[in-house]
Amino acid sequence: MSAALFALGVLVVAAGLALSIALHEIGHLVPAKLFGVRVTQYMIGFGPTIWSRTRGETEYGVKAFPLGGYIRMIGMFPPHRGEPEGTIREDSTGLLQQMTEMSEDAKAYETSQYGPEDAHRTFVALSVPKKLVVMLGGPTMNLLISVVLMTVMVSGIGMPAVTPTVQAVSECVLPAEAPADTSCEGEQPAPALAAGIRPGDTLRSIDGREISTWSDVTSAIRASGDRTVPVVVERDGETLELEATPIVDARPVLDEDGAAVRDAEGNLVTEQVGFLGVSGTPDLVPRSPAVVPELAWTTFSRTGELVLTLPVRLYEVGQAAFGSAERDPNGPLGVVGVSRLAGEVAAADQPGFELREKVGTMISMLASLNMALFVFNLVPLLPLDGGHVAGALVEGVRRLLARLRGKGDPGPVDMSRLLPLTNVVALVFLLMSVLLLYADIVKPITLFP
User: Fold this and answer.
1) Which residue ranges does the record assign to the PDZ domain (predicted)?
2) DSSP secondary structure string, 196-218?
3) pLDDT tens profile 325-358
4) Distance separating the N- and C-terminal Cα atoms of the chain
């Protein structure tokens, strides 16, 4: 494995992830500015600032640890009025008092960041629909990036498929479940071999049916029975017309994806159909962009399932990291794990895994990462975008109910009251990151064992 190529793979995915984060924050920044909110900072990363420039009223910069990003909008909480909104009873617990003080301190700090002339330019002053647009802008940007990358992968690079180019020709007719090393001695020669079909030939038509995909080959051969049919192949740039006589034999039933169907006991389900004795060549085949929505939905569903089962998955990661259990190759990964896989892809020296396959895999990884950012940020917990979305929705419901009851505007939801929960969620995320970091080091997931 080349160290230089490994490092290149890590850098490519790191740059792609950094760009995805930057565009996520632009998804928040643009609508916020369009709605007149004063945005004081646009930052990529966390920690000490290593570079920044101020343009207008916004400071744009990069911080030392590029593991996220944020924009800072003034007035995320209702303005501080100089005294708590609720009265703390003398018998209130210390925890309740601390929570109230935390809320008031946060609002006081927020209010100190702007003057009365900017009160109308705060986030909290936005209408509910505008708040939703601002907070959903980031995740939506990740969804768009994911869909664009999937389109490039599907229509530009191609999807794994079996092509009508012949990879191998059987020497004889063997039972469907015969081991690969079964001898052909005394067995009937395969019809394709007898017809003169060779590896490298591209099948163009069978029995007058034009061939464009491997499923066309399968359908034409199975429907031919044991009739002698014309077979047109392309060999070394020349078109040859051959004749083949398939045999009727017990062959596996295939599903919609071309995979063999097995029964409940794991045995192949077979049917009597025409058999020729050729296998196609696996390759990346460009597909229509029309398949992208289905692919995006499948990726979204699997990512959503991963997020919903995250506590269980993290428990399994812990068992693997601190015990003898195997790591789930489809389980959650940290930054180190993703970087390692990217390096393996770039440096891989595997037959059939050339530059196009590597580029396609990299694009697929970035598409999946962006889908993960989209889904994860929709979780209705602060400090995630989904927490602010949930707050805006609650605010909208409250105002609607007040209007229906003929009451006055109840005002915005005070999200500062959730700061204790926010800190707990942030701590959980930190512990999760540390666990994944450790697991990715001591028991990494690899593509090429």
Assistant:
1) 191-235
2) T--TT-EEEEETTEE-SSHHHHH
3) 888 888 888 888 888 888 888 888 877 788 888 8
4) 12
Q: Which of 108, 214, 213, 138 is nearest to 377 (CA)?
A: 138
Confidence of residue 178 (pLDDT cuts 50, 70, 90): low
H or E element, residue 310: helix 310-322
Amino acid at 374: F
240: amino acid identity, one letter: L
What does the block give as tokens for 410? Answer: 């109840």
The strand pairing partners of 300, in sequence order, are none
Q: Which tokens in the block code for residue 441?
A: 């080091």
Does 45 or 1 have the greater pLDDT score?
Answer: 45
Q: Which two tokens stand for residue 199?
A: 């590896």
CA gyration radius for the chain? 30
CA distances from residue 76 to 34, 100, 102 in whole angstroms, order as listed: 17, 17, 15
Task: Mention every residue, 6+ apart, whose C-beta is less than 8 A from residue 14.
Answer: 66, 339, 342
What are the distances in angstroms from CA 61 to CA 26, 36, 373, 424?
13, 21, 21, 28
- At 351, the amino acid letter reads P
Q: Which tokens hold the place of 419?
A: 């700061």
| Residue in the block written with tokens 């163009």 | 204
- Please tell me the number of Cα atoms within 13 Å of 266 on its side-chain side: 0
> Quick count: other Cβ atoms within 10 Å of Cβ 38?
19
The model's pLDDT over 182-217, given as tens digits with 9 standing for 90+, comes to 566 656 778 888 888 899 989 999 888 898 888 888
3-class secondary structure, 404: helix
165 Rama sector, left if φ>0, alpha if ψ -120 to 50, beta otherwise = beta
Question: Mind telling me the catalytic residues?
Answer: 25
Q: Encode 238-253 in three state secondary structure.
A: EEEEEEECCEEEEEEC
Joined tokens for residue 57: 């009223």
Q: Where are the beta strands (DSSP E) in 220-304?
A: 229-235, 238-244, 247-252, 270-275, 278-285
Cis status, amide bond into 412, omega within 30 of 0: no
Pairing of strands 229-235, 202-206: antiparallel
How many Cβ atoms sit within 10 Å of the Cβ of residue 393? 15
